[in-house]
Amino acid sequence: MESAPPSTPHSPQCSAWCSRFFVQALAIEGASLALSIGLGIWITSIADQSHERQRLLDELRAAQEKLSALDRDAGMTSERERLAREIHDTIAQDLTGIVMLSQRAQRELATGGGASETLGLLEESARTARAETRALVASSAPVALSTGGIADALRRLGERFERETGVTVTVTVDLGAIDRDSEVVLLRCAQEGLSNVRKHARASAVSRTAWTNAGAVGVRIADDGDGFDPETAGDGFGLAGMRDRLALVGGTLDVSSSPAGTVLTATLPAEVHA
């Protein structure tokens, strides 16, 4: 029996095996190349995403720093405006009263009259200004509200104004128990209204009414002075400051004036407690 001849490099069996080996090697190389390319693309994508995230983080930090700076600036501006309102509504008005009382005392002394009452009012005004200054520095409640509520504060304010100016002041209070913030706003508006009467109105009588109505509270200051044109009023801090203060709590200021007198009405929403 004859045996099969051995395979030679040029035999059909060797050629088929070599072809299969070449195809398998080519497939493996192709798969390796594809995997390498895919892995490279994936790594590059991760690197790009990492750089993009870092860029976004840097931008976010920069934006946060800018916002923090803006918040600090806004806070400082808001605090300056608050202090300006408080100083104008308290200390500046007390100092105005002190100046006018000093002038009154000088006139009384020049005419040979007694000035003891006026000097007593001067001392009282100075003590009030000092107390208001201390309260402002300590950021505590207004001095006028430290004893009693808004009703007592408005009555005391009217009595003091009448003694200092000789202008008749009528105070009517029809308020329920309201929150302290609303009391402060009403008191400041009443103080500013009387300050305007003192400085500009040349009035002989003033009436002040504080009221509560359907979830709102307000104070109305009416005088029988000379009146003015609200459209051409000066750029002083008074009315503008009242409007700004009221706007912060959602309130409004209405001003009507004629040669027969002026009426200021400050209204704000407030929680009324039973």
Tell me the CATH topology of the domain at 168-274.
Heat Shock Protein 90
Radius of gyration, in Å, reads 42 Å
Structural class: alpha+beta
* CATH class term of the domain at 168-274: Alpha Beta
Element-level helix/strand string: HHHEEHEEHEEE
Instruction: Output the strand order for the largest sheet.
Output: 1-3-4-6-5
Q: DSSP strand (E) fraction?
A: 15-25%
At CATH's second level, what is the architecture of the domain at 168-274? 2-Layer Sandwich
Which residues sit in consecutive blocks of at least 5 with pLDDT less than 50?
A: none
Quantity of strands, as a count: 7
Biggest sheet statistics? 5 strands, mixed
End-to-end distance, in Å?
A: 125 Å
Average pLDDT reading: 80
* Anisotropy-based shape: rod-shaped
Write a structural description:
The chain is of the alpha+beta class and 274 residues long. The chain has helices spanning 12-110, 116-138, 150-165, 180-201, 237-247, and strands at 168-174, 177-178, 205-213, 216-223, 252-258, 261-269, 272-273. The strands form two sheets. A five-stranded mixed sheet has the order 1-3-4-6-5, covered by helices on one side.
Key traits:
single chain, 274 residues, Heat Shock Protein 90, 5-stranded mixed sheet, 5 helices, rod-shaped
What is the gist of this entry?
This protein is α+β, with helices and mostly antiparallel strands. The protein has 5 helices and 7 strands, in the order H-H-H-E-E-H-E-E-H-E-E-E. Helix content is 62%, strand content 16%.
